[in-house]
Write a structure and sequence with these properties.
Blueprint: H1 2-26, E1 30-31, H2 33-36, E2 53-60, H3 69-86, E3 96-98, E4 104-106, E5 124-129, H4 140-155, E6 159-167, H5 179-185
Parallel strand pairs: 1-4, 2-5, 2-6, 3-5
Antiparallel strand pairs: 3-4
Bound molecules: zinc ion (ZN).
Amino acid sequence: MYITSAAVVTIAAVYLTLLIPETKAATPQIISRAQWGARAAKRRSPNLTMHPAPYVVLHHSTGANCDTQAICQLRIRGFQNYHMNSKGWADIGYNFIVGEDGNIYEGRGWGKQGAHSKPFNNKSIGICVIGDYTNRTPNTAAVQAVQRLIDHGVSIGEIKNDYKLLGHRQTWQTACPGNSLYTMMQSWPHWAPAA
Ligand SMILES: [Zn+2]
């Protein structure tokens, strides 16, 4: 039993050594609600009724961008206050938020209905890029963060393999996610010309 235990430990150690770098590469760091100083939601968001989500809907926040975590967190707390105080929503409307600091921030998170893309809230993951992308595209850090987040969602079974990527303007009468970002995203994997 001695030898067996030692062998098991050795095998486990080798396995973990091999496994850990792979896991790290595949799992993007997501800044949690606690980390960015979220308020508690007024009530629990309902689960998506179509799961894994068949759609990803992209937004821009309009207004100022941010390229440091401190400023991005400040902006996100502002969105949450606006959504809860002025719009009367239960929580920040987006599932995730991405900044030009290259970070991904947790909003309502995976598997939950947001308040971002009526009538797609029950079947989509809503991602907002902080800033106004009417006349310029988001930087590489933000674009890569969006892609890492979507790829991760697919890999953990939260987003369908054959998901459709839409701009908010495809689901509602709005200019969101801005002309430049909307043009850019049409070259991204899974962008669909129609829902
Ligand atoms: Zn939008």
